[in-house]
Design brief:
Layout (H helix, E strand, L loop, with lengths): L2 E5 L4 H13 L4 E6 L11 E4 L5 H10 L3 E4 L10 H22 L3 E5 L28 H19 L4 E7 L1 E3 L6 H7 L3 E5 L5 E2 L1 E3 H13 L4 E5 L5 E2 H7 L3 E5 L1 H13 L13 H4 L7 H6 L8 H27 L1
Parallel strand pairs: 1-2, 1-4, 2-3, 4-5, 5-6, 6-11, 7-10, 8-13
Antiparallel strand pairs: 9-12
Helix pairs in contact: 1-6, 2-3, 3-4
Length: 329
């Protein structure tokens, strides 16, 4: 892989991939495309600021002539303009597909998501790549990933000369990630078991996620790949490992409270009520194709990753409290 283009290169997944590629393949030239300028320490060799929906994306990719394209440009954090989110996530992806059709790179990889499986009461624990996708349409991110997942499969069938693959990671976390998903798990004083269900949760460490992505590309592998360690942690154990209590509350109560909270734009619950489906119902995956076909080994278990998250959260909280204390002297 000599010429690699990454859309969404300034996002956390993209930044870490740029860093990983520079370590593993220093001879590779990297083009980054994003609406956000890169941080100097994660800067690709070339960077262009484009909206992923723009025709300029196709022109820039065609001029760069990459042998490998990675599409990571998506709106991940919930926004209130669902039409805009869908437009960026789905129509932006279609725009990249058009570039792939024209350029015919050796490899094309798209980031999908384990949320495309949907969170459902009858999901097996765990699900491998053969399990059918059943998105939660009321959770926009899951719905968009479901649409894109189906579309990229068709793209792979249409372009047999291109190694088309897509990743389905669970929640990507690490010591520097602080978003609505980590806050849901780490910031509350109590872990809530919705309807009393001890739902299993999973996370993948950012180091493992980028290493797995690179392994897929190195093998010119095709098709979907779940990215998650093979274990999971019940919510009650999350509470125990983070030295908090857990309590049971009705599912409807959590949804109603979050609906009001989100609607009033109050802090803490910075996500729509539809996310609670992914707390109430299981969506645990197994990385069968990664481990059995590619021989990939995870460095961090889900429990290890939780401990990394919690330790980093405690350190951040300690620094904030220390800062407040020094100001009061």
């Amino acid at each position: 892989m000599q010429r690699i283009a990454i859309t969404g290169s300034s996002g956390h997944y993209g930044r870490r991939l740029v860093e990983h590629i520079r370590q593993e393949s220093p001879e590779s030239k990297i083009l980054g495309i994003d609406v956000v300028p890169p941080k100097p320490e994660y800067a690709p060799h070339e960077f262009v600021s484009h909206d992923i929906r723009s025709s300029d994306v196709r022109t820039t990719l065609a001029n760069f002539q990459p042998d490998t394209i990675m599409h990571l440009a998506f709106v991940v954090n919930p926004i209130r303009d669902l039409k805009l989110m869908h437009d960026i996530n789905v129509n932006g992806t279609r725009n990249v597909f058009e570039a792939v059709r024209a350029i015919r790179p050796q490899r094309f990889l798209m980031a999908s998501s384990a949320t495309a499986y949907g969170a459902w009461d009858d999901n097996p624990i765990p699900m491998d790549e053969s399990w059918p996708l059943r998105a939660r349409d009321d959770f926009q991110y899951s719905s968009d990933k479901f649409v894109n997942d189906a579309a990229v499969q068709k793209l792979g069938e249409e372009l047999p000369d291109v190694a088309v693959s897509w990743t389905r990671p669970t929640v990507i976390v690490g010591p520097t990630i602080d978003n609505y998903l980590t806050r849901l798990v780490l910031h509350l004083p109590v872990m809530f078991l919705l309807d009393g269900v001890d739902t299993p949760l999973q996370w993948v460490h950012e180091d493992d996620c980028v290493a797995a992505t690179w392994a897929i590309l190195k093998h010119s592998a095709r098709g979907p790949f779940n990215i998650s360690p093979p274990d999971w942690v019940p919510m009650s154990k999350v509470a125990k490992l983070t030295k908090r209590r857990h309590m049971k509350i009705p599912f409807w109560c959590a949804k109603l409270a979050t609906t009001v909270w989100w609607g009033m734009r109050l802090p803490i619950f910075d996500f729509p009520a539809s996310l609670h489906d992914f707390v109430r119902y299981p969506w645990v995956i197994t990385p069968d194709r990664l481990t059995k076909e590619l021989g990939f080994e995870f460095k961090y278990s889900a429990e290890d990753t939780l401990k990394v998250m919690w330790h980093a959260h405690q350190q951040r909280r300690g620094r904030m409290e220390g800062g407040r204390g020094s100001k009061s002297l």
